[in-house]
Automatic annotation (TrEMBL):
GO terms for biological process: cobalamin biosynthetic process. This is Cob(I)yrinic acid a,c-diamide adenosyltransferase. Residues 1-22 are annotated as: Disordered. It comes from the Bacteria. Signal peptide: none annotated. Pfam families: CobA_CobO_BtuR (PF02572). It comes from Enemella evansiae. PANTHER family: CORRINOID ADENOSYLTRANSFERASE. Residues 1-10 have a biased composition (Acidic residues). The keyword ATP-binding does not apply. The keyword Transferase applies. InterPro entries: CblAdoTrfase_CobA (IPR003724), P-loop_NTPase (IPR027417).
Length: 204
């Protein structure tokens, strides 16, 4: 593929503009590093286009603030102050979803994952965002916390123009089949293999 031109043009009856401007489902999976980082890079592009950005972290601990979160939250502030870019909403399951914090209760991770997915579904129906990053979303599916039939049908039937990128290892085969864009990160070498712990600025 050279200069953004596809190798072949499908016989789908759509114009070039129609084919270019359609909502995409992307999946970043595999054993290698960079799945979430690539998704957050896509969120930066979406912010620049003025899209409303929603990040749902389904596994990350709420006490572990990553650099991409700080950057995108700051850009959300820029939008509020200047109108540049788009709004940013960042939700972390490990911190308790912002719309339903239950102080003093024990964490039930499966229930929290289901609650987060229910909120994503509500936002799909409301066509609230231009881009959703469902970070580490493959794991609640793998662990049986979310029903793959429901996930696939909801993603297929989401209305309007809403891009979705899903990250995590071991993406379900049905997600891979349904997605428009799938990237598998392959680990060749990693400092962890030599016993080196994560580094500031590299892992977070």
């Amino acid at each position: 593929m050279a200069e953004g031109e596809p190798d072949q043009i499908p016989d789908d009856g759509l114009t070039t503009r129609q084919r270019r401007n359609r909502p995409l489902l992307a999946v970043n999976t595999g054993e290698g590093k960079g799945k979430s980082t690539a998704a957050f890079g896509l969120a930066l592009r979406g912010w620049h286009q003025g899209w409303s950005i929603a990040v749902f972290q389904f596994v990350k601990n709420g006490k572990w603030r990553i650099g991409e979160e700080a950057a995108l939250r700051a850009l959300g502030g820029v939008h509020e102050q200047t109108g540049a870019g788009g709004p940013v909403d960042w939700q972390i399951m490990g911190a308790g979803w912002s719309w339903s914090r239950k102080q003093g209760s024990e964490d039930d991770h499966a229930a929290q994952a289901a609650e987060g997915w229910a909120e994503v579904k509500r936002r799909f129906a409301a066509q609230r965002h231009g881009l959703y990053v469902l970070d580490e979303f493959t794991y609640p599916i793998t662990w049986g916390w979310l029903d793959i039939d429901d996930v696939c049908s909801t993603l297929a039937d989401r209305p309007g123009f809403q891009h979705v990128v899903i990250t995590g290892r071991g993406a379900h085969p049905r997600l891979v089949e349904q997605a428009d864009l799938v990237t598998e990160m392959t680990k060749v070498k990693h400092p962890f293999d030599a016993g080196q712990k994560g580094q500031r600025g590299i892992e977070w």
